[in-house]
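Predict the 3D structure for this chain.
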Amino acid sequence: MRNRIALSVLILLAGWASDAVAAEPVLKVGTAGDYKPLTWQDPLTGTYEGRAIDLISTFAKDKGYRIQFVKTTWPDLMKDLTDGDFQVAVGGISSTPGRAEKALMSQPVARTGKVALVRCGEQGDYESLKEIDQPSVRVVENRGGTNEKFALARLKHAILIIVPNNQMPFDYLKRDKADVMFTDSIEAVYLEDQNSGLCAVFPDKPYTHSDKVFLFAKDETALQQEFNGWLAHRK
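Done. Predicted structure below.
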């Protein structure tokens, strides 16, 4: 009899737990998962990690959301957001006028700027745009982000190589298939600190200054305001 009562209690508790999980509103979060140290998808487990992931996860926990991460890419990020694949996009996203037209932006979550990333020991060869923008210099960038836009806008003579994702440029540099990558100082400094063999050139003097933000779908005004209010109280 006691066993039956205990079993009944366990079943009821399990039911209540399931109802509680089901009652949590789902927060769909899009991220490319290829931008250390802000967002990274573990290739073995499929789980996400990084500073941006930690921030949105803490927000979700504090506000009672259950996160569902959605994989996206830099070329498709804005389309996926406007198509409703997710409510918010996070992880290394720069604030730009074009993005502001199509989405709602959070308050800045980080500040950074474009710098040159090269093989360690070669920083002295690429200390200025003039030295980089030479016919013999190979510059590699990932397609679809602000790195590519910066290179296209600033380079007239260098060889520009565009690759599909944000990890391939590092391999190109290490294998001497390219000489320079323009990326954000936050990523360049992280790679240098990880003893990757790649080093930032003047990371404290970037060519540009930009804010990293989270992007919310246009119809997610309440969510944007909730996040901004929460973020303001953390600072």
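The chain has nine helices and 15 strands.
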